[in-house]
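Troubleshooting log. The previous structure file for this entry was overwritten by mistake, so regenerating from the original sequence record. Sequence copied from the archived sheet and checked twice against the printout by T.R.
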Amino acid sequence: MRLIVSDAAELNRMVDDLVTTGRIAACTLAMSTEDIRLEPIVTEVADVFAMRGIPVTVRVPDVMIRADQAGLRQLIRNLVSNAARHGGDEIAIESVMREGIVSIRVIDDGPGVSADIEPYLFNRYLHGDGRALLNGGVGLGTAVPAANAESFGGTIEYLRANDRTVFEVRSLP
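Regenerated output below.
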């Protein structure tokens, strides 16, 4: 049963990503930004992964953020899915607010991205030299979160810190 739930969730994520990518290509990706509470969205995403047998630690204060609810959910879901697929066993979502900017971080204890791929990390489908970044996906795992973050005025960044892989999304509250 857990395998069916996991596979269905992953297929749903891939379909959502393909639809979003089509909208990006057609310049019709429309996000409706509103003030939303961050913690319930993050908890909902973590709960879905927990049902799939993938524990995700949540350290998110109850702050308001200006974003598209569905786009933010997709963004976080993609980053956690990438961490579960390519990262380590320990996955966490955390958030902090500094100087009016909310940062959402998806962190895992995996090895990170190789230096030769890093410059192309947020590209769709092809990565620099024309090859797929990683096997087993459709090549949208980081491109869609980047587009979602940009659509509501945010940024996304990849970094390594304390032997952890970190994808950090910054947005104005």
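Strands lie at 34-37, 56-59, 64-67, 91-98, 101-108, 155-161, 164-171. Archived copy saved in two places this time.
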